[in-house]
Design a protein that fits this description.
The chain has 450 residues and is of the alpha+beta class. It is built from 18 helices and 13 strands. The chain has a single domain, classed as Cytochrome P450 (Cytochrome p450, Orthogonal Bundle). Helix content is 51%, strand content 11%. The protein has a six-stranded mixed beta sheet with strand order 1-2-3-9-6-4. A hairpin with a 3-residue loop joins strand 11 and strand 12. It is globular. 42% of the residues are buried. The structure holds protoporphyrin IX containing FE. Protoporphyrin IX containing FE (HEM) binds next to helix 13, helix 14 and helix 18.
């Protein structure tokens, strides 16, 4: 370790931690922050890595000096096996062009119209749940949230009804994501040309997703006008210099990126919201009071959102404690400095929303589920870059407002009708996969709200 290195692990020390890292990544990262402070150093052979856990450090990487970093990291390169070079995994000019192109699909006007998609889709889910409420049978809330959010993103961005395929597609998404997590956790493994049952499952799931996406594109191309939704925008786009349309593969990459990034994250956040609400009856009562007084028994619209601040705060607080995107990585492409320490070109930067969201210097009673920390009076008491469920800087999540509108409507509609309870003795373990997921799903009891 060179002299001006922050505290942390030399290569041989890190070796002893490998098991722990694999078994309990979140616990390991929390321990690093508690023991070594706001910057932890890791050495793995020639590779240098830093866990950045201060709001200033995060701001430096994501915002102030973002040009010194890119996404050429294991995390994003593995993801690119699925999403290709779509918006989430691309860099440089390609990223900039695509971001500018896709941004209008998330305009205020489009977000205001989201209720037209979210409300009927959630109504169908609530009808499905009547059976569970009547029989007392447990519902897999995680699976239900995956399904409803996939249907919503399919309809809202691509005008396509995925309801009949939703189950098959969400299974495929989980299979492909599971595989890349396995790859990351097992760097020493057979080359992919050796077909193991796992790689066979991965390839089959990826081709299920590809087939669905290519069919969607082909159907749209048959129409005289590709339309005004996200798919239409991608198909109509022409390169400013060459006048060429986007390649078939690039359209596929953008669509698959939005389908995956646009539902698995929201589903995870909602699943954890139900989990937390089930354990905090006072919060649930407050939520129910707000929803009841604003909506009574009618359906919500996006015009109601300003009157549902507590509902939005519940979601913000669930995102703090269980940020679906718990890991954000970057590669330093220039030398830089963070917190007075040199960051050499080539270093891997690790930022964990999960860890910084529990930083005791920024959050009073950090482990408590307290939605009111996001109310008007207290909501600005933390530094901007200590709360990063959607990242920050130019690479801020393009769907952050979409997710908040969607989730607030879903929370309100479910609370109007039902209360979700955890069966007695439930042990819920967090799996830190591509997003944070409850191990084995989240089985809950559906009780009709009185
Ligand atoms: C609660 C829900 C969501 C969470 C927690 C979340 C989280 C994030 C985070 C942390 C990033 C930044 C990653 C980085 O800087 O390395 C990101 C980027 C992105 N997200 Fe989200 N996201 C959510 C919902 C959505 C939705 C609804 C969509 C689309 C409909 C979406 C599409 C994307 C895309 C395309 C990017 C890449 C943006 C870029 O680099 O320009 N996300 N998301």
């Amino acid at each position: 370790m060179i002299a001006d290195c922050p505290p942390g692990f030399k290569s041989y020390e890190l070796l002893f931690q490998l098991n722990r890292i694999r078994r309990d990544t979140l616990g390991f990262l929390l321990d690093c922050a508690a023991k070594f402070g706001d910057l932890t150093y890791f050495e793995a052979g020639k590779q240098r890595a830093f866990l950045v856990n201060s709001a200033d450090g995060v701001r430096r990487v994501l915002q102030d000096n973002h040009r010194a970093y890119n996404k050429d990291t294991i995390q994003y390169n593995s993801l690119a096996q699925i999403t290709g070079r779509g918006l989430l995994t691309s860099d440089g000019d390609l990223w900039f062009r695509q971001r500018r192109l896709e941004q209008p699909a998330f305009s205020r006007a489009r977000l205001n119209a989201l209720d037209g998609v979210v409300v009927p889709t959630v109504q169908k889910m609530l009808q499905r749940w009547e059976r569970y409420a009547a029989s007392g049978e447990l519902v897999d809330v995680d699976g239900e949230m995956m399904r409803v959010t996939l249907e919503i993103v399919g309809k809202a961005l691509f005008s396509i009804d995925l309801s009949t395929q939703a189950h098959q597609l969400t299974e495929a998404v989980l299979t492909v994501l599971d595989h890349i997590v396995y790859q990351a956790q097992n760097p020493v493994r057979l080359p992919e040309i050796f077909l193991t049952p796992r790689t066979v499952r991965f390839r089959a799931a990826l081709s299920t997703l590809d087939m669905a996406v290519y069919e969607m594109i082909a159907n749209r191309r048959e129409q005289a006008d590709p339309g005004e939704d996200m798919l239409g925008m991608l198909l109509k786009a022409r390169d400013e210099q060459t006048g060429q349309p986007m390649s078939e593969e690039q359209v596929r990459d953008e669509v698959i990126t939005l389908l995956i990034a646009g539902h698995e994250t929201v589903a995870s956040a909602l699943t954890w919201s139900w989990y937390l609400l089930a354990q905090h009856s006072r919060v649930w009562e407050n939520l129910r009071t707000e929803v009841g007084s604003v909506l009574q028994d009618r359906l919500p619209t996006t015009a109601d959102l300003p009157n549902l601040p507590y509902t939005a705060q519940v979601f913000s607080e669930a995102l703090r404690l269980y940020p679906p995107a718990w890991l954000i990585t970057r590669k330093a492409i220039e030398d830089d400095q963070i917190g007075g320490y040199p960051i050499p070109k080539g270093a891997l930067i690790i930022i964990s929303p999960y860890v910084i969201h529990r930083h005791p210097a920024y959050w009073e009673n950090p482990l408590a589920f307290d939605p009111e920390r996001f109310n008007e009076a207290r909501g600005k008491s933390y530094p901007r870059y200590a709360y990063i469920p959607f990242g920050g800087g130019p690479r801020l999540c393009i769907g952050s407002q979409f997710a908040q509108v969607e989730a607030t409507l879903i929370l309100a509609m479910v609370t109007q009708h039902y209360r979700l309870e955890l069966p007695e003795g439930s042990q819920v373990k967090v799996d830190a996969l591509v997003t944070l997921r409850p191990h084995g799903g989240l089985a809950m009891r559906v009780i009709r709200a009185a």
